[in-house]
Each structure stands twice: as C-alpha cells, then as structure tokens.
Automatic annotation (TrEMBL):
GO terms for biological process: zymogen activation. PROSITE patterns: SRCR_2 (PS50287). It comes from Neodrepanis coruscans (wattled asity). The keyword Ribonucleoprotein does not apply. It holds the Pfam family SRCR. The lineage of its organism: Eukaryota, Metazoa, Chordata, Craniata, Vertebrata. Disulfide bonds join C71-C81, C169-C179. GO terms for molecular function: serine-type endopeptidase activity. Residues 2-100, 105-200 form the SRCR domain. Keywords: Disulfide bond. The keyword Disulfide bond applies. GO terms for cellular component: extracellular space; plasma membrane. The gene is Cd6. InterPro entries: SRCR (IPR001190), SRCR-like_dom_sf (IPR036772). This is CD6 protein.
C-alpha cells in the first residue's frame, strides 16, 4: 500500500509505503519528478507539481523501504520502479511530494490571514474563486478550515489570477475540497467576481 502523510490533504505529504504490514518511508536520494509522478498517479492525485526532500513534511517512522528510486514515470506502482538494494539514509532524508490534485486556500491582501481575497492553490498555481455560488455555507467551510472562526462579511474583487474555481457545498464540510467543485469552466463563472471574505478570527 501507499500513502502521503504530514501534508494538508491526501494529495500532499511524505511518501510512505507498506510492506508486510509495516509502514516505512522513501529516501530522497535521486528522488525526482518521474518518481513522484508514479506516486501521484497511483493515489489518483493527478501528477507531481513539486518534489521535496530533507523530511519537508516531517520525519517518518519505521524502516526506509526505498533508496535511489529510478522510475521512468509510466509505472503503475511505485514498487515496480528500480531501487538500490541497500540504503544509507536516515529519516531526515524522507521524500515528499505535492500532487496536482492537492488543494489549499488562503485569504490574500487583507489585514491578516483571516481577511482578503479567497485564493486556491490547485494544479500548481494560485487561482481565484467565483462568487456566483458562494453563500453562507461555503463561507463557513472556508473560515473554519483556515482556523479563522466564523464568517463576518463577503467581499468582491476582480479575477486577476490564471484560473477560476467554483465551489458548491451541500452541507458543512471540513474542507472545500469535499464540496462539489469545478475548475476553469467559463459558463458558471461568467460575469462573476472573485470572492473575498472577512472571518472573525485573527490569522497569522
């Protein structure tokens, strides 16, 4: 089995493999985009947008199960890739990845991290969010997921970033990624503004 740990979604984090019931990690020696692409695709997380070494997502536990991975990028599973039979690594060299399906959010340009324009990181770029389906539920999910408390006020800005995301939440979720979303479809976002929020919490 395979998973990503220590990230902000299931599509970002430290690469962990399970062999014979024991979870272990991958060493960052030779860790590159073709290796990470195999991980992202195997987890149905798209493709790799960035690779990380030096235990960027925290140090793992257990054995180090792969070193000097040499994936071509087309393998179905990480364990099909050639690797060194022995390793000379410690957990401070645990490998990590951010996959294209990872989503994270920020409020940009406000007085602190709990106010400003809503921006989403997806497919390796920051994009704005359309206000055409942004109501109390979406606002509540965002403010809570950022640790910013309750929504106070909705704002409107221009779309100045490359992409546009639209969210529709049917119920209160821990994250906007669990709501219905569409990326870069022009019709639902036609004549929309980029949404902004002021939440009642104090962000960093």
């Amino acid at each position: 089995a395979l998973r990503l740990a220590g990230g902000r979604s299931r599509c970002e984090g430290r690469v962990e493999l399970e062999e014979q019931g024991i979870w272990g990690t991958v060493c960052d020696d030779g860790w590159d985009i073709p290796d990470a692409d195999v991980v992202c695709r195997q987890l149905q997380c798209g493709h790799a947008v960035s690779v990380h070494g030096n235990s960027a997502f925290g140090r793992g536990k257990g054995p180090i199960l792969r070193d000097e991975l040499g994936c071509h990028g087309h393998e179905q599973h990480l364990w099909e890739c050639p690797a060194a039979p022995e390793h000379d690594c410690s957990h401070k060299e645990d490998a990590g990845v951010v996959c294209s399906e990872h989503q994270e959010w920020r409020l940009s340009g406000g007085r602190d991290g709990c106010a400003g324009r809503v921006e989403v990181f997806f497919h390796g770029i920051w994009s704005t969010v359309c206000d055409s389906s942004w109501y109390d539920l979406e606002a509540e999910v965002l403010c809570w997921s950022l640790g910013c408390g309750e929504p106070l006020q909705k704002l409107s800005f221009g779309h100045t970033l490359p992409g546009k995301m639209l969210y529709q939440c049917g119920s209160l979720q821990p994250s906007l990624a669990l709501c219905h979303w569409i990326f870069n479809k022009s019709a639902p976002c036609y004549q929309s503004q980029a949404v902004g929020m002021i939440c009642n919490g104090m962000g960093s």
